[in-house]
Amino acid sequence: MDDQLHLGEDENMLALRRAWDRAMHTLANRVNKPSFESWFKSMKPVSFDGERVTLGAPSPFACEWVSKRYGSLVREVLSQHLGKTVEVTIVHVPPEKRPLLGEPPPEPPASAHKEATTVVEPEPPPFEKPVLNPKYTFENFVVGNSNRLAQAGAMSVARAPGQSYNPLFIYGGAGLGKTHLMHAIGHYVLQAHPRLRVAYLSGETFAQQYITALREHRIEAFRQKYRNVDVWLVDDIQFIAGKEHTKEEFFHTFNTLYQMGRQVVFASDRPPRELHTMDDRLRSRFEAGLIADIAPPEFETRVAILQKRAQIEGIQVPDQVLYHIAYAVEGNVRTLEGVLISIAARASVHGKPITLQLASEVLSRHYVDEKQVHAIPSEQAVLQAVCQRFGLTTQDILGDQRSREVLMARQIAMYLLREKAQLPLQQIGQMFGKNHSTVLHAYNRVKTSLNKDKELSSIIYDLNTVLGN
């Protein structure tokens, strides 16, 4: 900054400007680089009356964050460079309304503590809260290996917007939970930080609103709407690719928010490197933060998703029906939940219980190939087939006998219950009175021996034929 006085600026203000320049160099060496870049670079000195310094921050969240985390440090450093102990007040001064040095700062409330660094946050202008699905919360999101990183990243940015992963880029196929996580972030931020302004929209909505603003000569209002939010959630950004003017506006909006340390979260059906019609400058910015994918859920996660949805809806569903659905529907969480709701609705309308037969009818009629639906044998069918093949009883296999023949039959039964009936390892263990690791060991032993042991391979082939290969 130059030392030339602005209109209305006195010696105190000139001293503050010089002290703040020196303080910035000191702070750059005393806080980590991300925090300095995100928070301190966007702060400006506003006024100094000889005893109290007023600093301006670009958002209410920035006021809160700097005061809580670095308030004492800021006061210490400024006092050092001013040569006297001063009090420091941090106020929200929007970038477009930031006064020139020497203008009166916003008045702090009378309740502000005189001895400590104080957060002074005037009421923000009216801001329309986003419309979020009440069921899309972190509590209702089932975490598995396929989505663990995305969920962890989403939770991190929700707890501390602008601090950990900025931007956060979530990608994955349709119906896997991207929108659920976006809404969950919005819900969490609105509850934990009610003063923050949160905007959620899709890339398509952004493009439509931008075109409308151009047509109606309201482009400045459109820009102010999104460039002054604290958390910007943009879903399905692939829809702006190929729209040149929309991409330009999107880039500048993102750049403005990013430089001010506001949290930005994007979701797409593909990773940044595959957004081929997106500008390189946008792709490079997407890649500057955390990129987290969501893959199709594995069987155990699909079962857990169904259990969670049944619990939310208050539906009593037999476990075998849930396993049946999870086996038949593999790649789409939205479809998975839709099947469950359809089965429950049909049962309710006809006054019937939810059974395996009803689930098969709904699946084969509306969702998947009938052969695939009926390919899942029940646990009773598996045990019966194994017993018949070895000339044993169910009690023999489920009991504690340890003859070679019984042990072999028991391991094959465990393998088929996992492979054919698609039962979770834990449930199989409960059937046999074994723990999870014992079942896994039996399953892996049979699986790895199939190509080496001709007798075992023949037995499995025969049983698969009986159970429906």
Q: Figure out the total of helices.
A: 20
**Mean pLDDT across all amino acids:** 81
Question: How does the overall form come out from the CA principal axes?
Answer: elongated
Helix content: 40-55%
Question: How many β strands by DSSP?
Answer: 9
> SSE order in H/E notation?
HHEEHEEHEHEHHEHEHEHHHHHHHHHHH
Strand order of the largest sheet: 6-7-8-5-9
Give the DSSP E fraction (strand runs of 2 or more residues): 5-15%
Uncertain regions spanning at least 5 consecutive residues: 1-8, 97-125
What profile does the largest beta sheet have?
A: 5 strands, parallel
Distance N terminus to C terminus?
A: 77 Å
Q: Taking Cα atoms only, what radius of gyration do you get, to the nearest Å?
A: 31 Å
Class inferred from helices and paired strands: alpha/beta
